[in-house]
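Slide 14.
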Amino acid sequence: MSNLIEVSGIVKAYGGIKALAGCALEVREGEINGLIGPNGSGKTTLFNVITGYEQVQQGLVKFRGVDITNAPPDRVFGLGIGRTFQLTRMFARLTVLENVLVATQREEGWARSVTRLAGSQLERARALELLDFVGITRLANEPAGNLSYGQRKLLELASLLIADPAVLLLDEPAGGVNPTLINHLSDRIKDLNRDGKTILVVEHNMEFVMGICSRITVLSQGSTLMAGAPAEVRSSPAVLEAYLGADEEEAALDAELRRELDAAAHANATRLASVQATVVREQGPDAGSPREPEAAGPGASVRTRPNGPPPLLQLSGVCAGYGGADILKEVTLEVPEGAITCVVGPNGAGKSTVMKTVSGLLRPRAGEVSFRGERVSGMTPKQILAKGIAQIPQAHSLFPEMTVQENVEMGAFTVGDRRLVRKRLAAVQELYPVVRDRAHEKAGSLSGGQQRLVEFARCLMLDPDLIMLDEPSMGLDPRTRSMVFDMVALMNRQGKTILLVEQNARAGLKLSSHGVVLENGRVRLTGSGHEVLTHPEIGALYLGGAVTATAA
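Slide 15: predicted structure.
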């Protein structure tokens, strides 16, 4: 079988972060090809590179043997490569039928007016045929904005098909779609393949991708880890390790590097202790003193322990999502005060959505979020921040054209006492030398690891009670990743409660006293970090399969 698309040696970097590092991919003609990998492995970036939405610094993309590297999106589309997006893109005020007809305008421009009521009879007949194919003909005259999330996915597929591309690149077609529609979508993709379409699917739903693909390529940290049949991929220890994270006890860090890391951790601990009083609130002689996390015992559940202290943060029956689709489905979990709680799970499980819901960036449709026993769901992000909850997001969030010091000082924008701001700045400069040494350089010039430490420093300027870290190790090399985890542990030992979402599940759970596994928006396993990490079915949660029991 010949390759319709061939990608080799692709390098794509954003500032100090390499999203793709020598990536390779073959899309076999006439097959359903899968592309999987942990969060941050470069899947969507690779889609963007192939379709011309991102320019690369190095490497080659070929279609039917012709070099299309860095070709603009319109040329790539014209050659026969069509794609969908993670988040559906449509004209909400146009009808479903009109949305499909928009794709017929590509060769004549907007002069024909996409809002006209009638295309050619041939175009309309084909559009209705495709709506029937995906199963939403009855909605043809409904405004697209009225569709459910799953129906929007089907509309996007129909809109792509009317252009009749040679190869379909589907970016998370099953993401956020209910099980009934997932089965329907799976059948339609198989039908398209039987009719001769070549398909490349990026998908987090492992049962879905393993069930429809004949060949799957796995990305890890921007590089191609392996390619093979679904059974080979599912049974590969290397693939499972990529999802769970390398075992630090077996990692390829030599003894000298380990000694360097230990020395750095000791030095940081000494610095942190010396400036502790200026980083934490003045709450009396015990303020900021180390609090030993209370380890969850056997049979730990997501409910408050009857004889233990109340949780600092609690989610109760939370349902939340985007565009009418629930990503979180009755999520109940708690974060004990003074502990590190790590939330892990396969891509698309809802981990980042938990943090957005807690921080007020996303309002739950049902259920509630409480902090220190007070309901905070429904409050604005500013109000929640004032309560003592701070979040460091997954994507680097520094202002690249501002200096390092200016970025750090932005963390104290709600602090009116300038003397206190200066003290806290001095404290974080001592704790994170990069804040002092690179103070007047643009933040965009820093490496990925250095940017992450500056984000930590900015967060500490607010002195929050709860720090939420969304994928702090993403895109970092082993040395820097270890340093970041050391700093997370140090913040916790100095009294900060940590809610950690981490794609390196093994490292995150080893660091944590409490672990929670999400899958498809539901809590599937809870317990101590060790219990969750060693649960016999955690591999099935990541690579597809049923879980028969909770951690105990």
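Speaker note: The CA atoms of residues 245 and 504 lie 4 Å apart.
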